[in-house]
Amino acid sequence: MAGSRRYSSISVAMPVHNERRTIREIIRRIKAVDREKEIIIVDDMSNDGTRRILDEYRCDPEIRVVFQPENRGKGAALHTAFQLATKDVVIVQDADLEYSPADYEVLLRPIDTGVADVVYGSRFLHGERRVLYFRHSIGNRLLTLLSNLFTDLNLTDMETCYKAFKREVIQNIQLVSPRFGFEPEITAKLAKLPCTIYEVPINYYGRSYDQGKKITWRDGIAALRHIAVFSLSRRPFVKDREALERALVSPPEPPDTGVVTLEVFEKALNYNRWIFSRLRQHVGGEILEVGSGIGNIIAELVNDPQVERVVATDHAPASLNVIRDRFGTDAFLEAVVWDANLPPPQALSDQTFDTVICTNVLEHVENHKAALQSMKRLLRPNGKLLLLVPAHPALFCAIDRELGHFRRYRKQELCSLLGETGFRVEEVLEHNFLGAIGWFVSGKVLRRKELRNRDVRRFDRMVPLLRRMDPIIAPLFGGVSLIAVCRHAEETSA
User: Fold this and answer.
1) Could you give the CA distance from residue 433 to residue 395 in angstroms, rounded to a whole number?
2) 15 phi and psi angles, rounded to 5 deg
3) How many whole angstroms separate alpha carbon 261 and alpha carbon 401?
4) Where are the strands (E) in 146-295, listed by range?
5) Which of 11, 320, 428, 459 could form a disulfide with 335, with the two C-beta atoms 3.0–4.6 Å apart?
């Protein structure tokens, strides 16, 4: 729980290569840390006598030593150490004394207090550091800047050695960089996860090349490539997402497929404009939209000169907040919470409208007849209801169920329903024949449960051509939706 503190046990992951001058001292400093711990040392084929020194620690209960059969690089050594870790938190520790275990308490505090999943120790925040190479400082800052541009993080020190991870996080990330590419790789992959990352100041005691520093300008050039490759890659890299997310400070809510679909279709600009183009000739005056979602239709209404005022409604306050953020609210645009399963709220009780628009909502309402009667009460005499609903029960599939659809509609059934609730139907049109094919293939053949972003993007690129073909083909073979235009049956006298 955030605010309280527990003292995590630690696994110190330490890659080693030719560090005989410092290895005893760094082990002594780590063992002096007052924490339950294990030290996992992975020797990367040292040839300077380091291995003989490490043999001295084989019987130490806090230390586990692994000898790599060949020189594979720092990243490969860390991959091995991470998978052997058994404690709460894994800390990366170099063996060269540039980073002091005395900073573990600072590094661990955000995890101990329950506010972070990963912590970076920054050499460039306030902390004691040895003054050394200007070129290295510029290089580190440049690499961090480029990494931040790709990942949209705001780190000050991406290349720092000191990183602390909840064990379940680091063990469930597939890592591939064998050498110094570990830093940009892990940063890019963490940025794609719902992890909470903190940065804390640490002390840094850099060493010179004469003292054994190994990283070179070639590793900096390689880091540029790693930043781009791992940030842009779409390859899966999580081994067990459920285990990883259970460990997070703020586990993500299960994705709401309906919201995801709305967000996908928000980006389908051609499709949204196409729908509105089929409704535009019937739109005018004061408009009520039932089930506005995040404003895909509102985006068209606010720019239409025939529209005098718009009231957006939705059952989800969060969706209306998106609309307010996108378009603002004033005398022209109002946002009201209304679940169409219920009678209209008090805010709508004394209002009537020239046009009611309801797209892809009625199928979500269990008592759709009562919902239509509510819409009729909000319409002025002779006012229009513009309705778009999913068509053809034969297309009903897992996608519909995940979206919360109770039904898909046959044309005749929809006409009868509208007549029973006091509307005079002027026309019902089949809409989007290609969408019907895609829905059938995705839901019936491939048995998917949601619409994929890339499929919607491809479809959206085809809309300009589809708009020309659909009026000819959809009436013959059917569409994924039905568009109904109807009026309040009680007309005023001339």
Assistant:
1) 12
2) -80, 140
3) 13
4) 163-166, 197-201, 285-289
5) 320
Q: What is the C-alpha to C-alpha distance for residues 96 and 1, in angstroms, rounded to an integer?
A: 35
Return d(Cα 100, Cα 333) in angstroms, integer.
Answer: 59
Contact 376, 486 (CB under 8 A): no
Q: Where are the domains of the chain?
A: 10-246, 258-488
- Residues 192 and 245: their CA atoms lie apart, in Å, by 13
Contact assessment for residue 39 and residue 63, using Cβ atoms and an 8 Å cutoff:
yes
Architecture of 258-488 per CATH?
A: 3-Layer(aba) Sandwich (3.40)
Using DSSP, state whether 37 is helix, strand or coil.
Answer: strand
Q: What gap in Å lies between CA 85 and CA 65, rounded to an integer?
A: 12
- Give tens-digit pLDDT for 271-324: 989 999 999 999 999 999 999 988 889 989 998 999 999 999 999 888 898 888
What whole-number distance in Å separates Cα of residue 390 and Cα of residue 432?
10
Nearest to 164 by CA among 217, 204, 205, 116: 116
pLDDT digits (tens, 9 = 90+) for 330-381: 889 999 999 999 999 999 989 999 999 999 999 999 999 999 999 999 999 9
Each residue of 95-108: pLDDT tens digit? 999 999 999 999 99
How many C-beta neighbours within 10 Å does residue 111 have? 24
**Which amino acid is it at 398?**
A
Q: How far apart are CA 195 and CA 169, in angstroms?
A: 9
Q: Residue 382: left (phi > 0), alpha (psi -120 to 50), or beta?
A: left
Give the list of residues 6+ apart from residue 394 with CB closer than 8 angstroms, or none. none
Predicted local distance difference test score (pLDDT) of residue 405: 93
Output phi, psi for 404, to 5 deg: 85, 25
CA nearest neighbour of 9 among 91, 69, 83: 91
What CATH number matches the domain at 10-246, 3.30.1360.70, 3.30.300.130, 1.10.3720.10, 3.90.550.10?
3.90.550.10
How far, in Å, CA of 382 to CA of 110, rounded? 63
State the average pLDDT for the chain. 89
Kindly list the strands in the beta sheet with 379-390, ordered across the sheet, starting from the edge strand earlier in the chain: 333-337, 307-314, 285-289, 353-359, 379-390, 481-488, 423-431
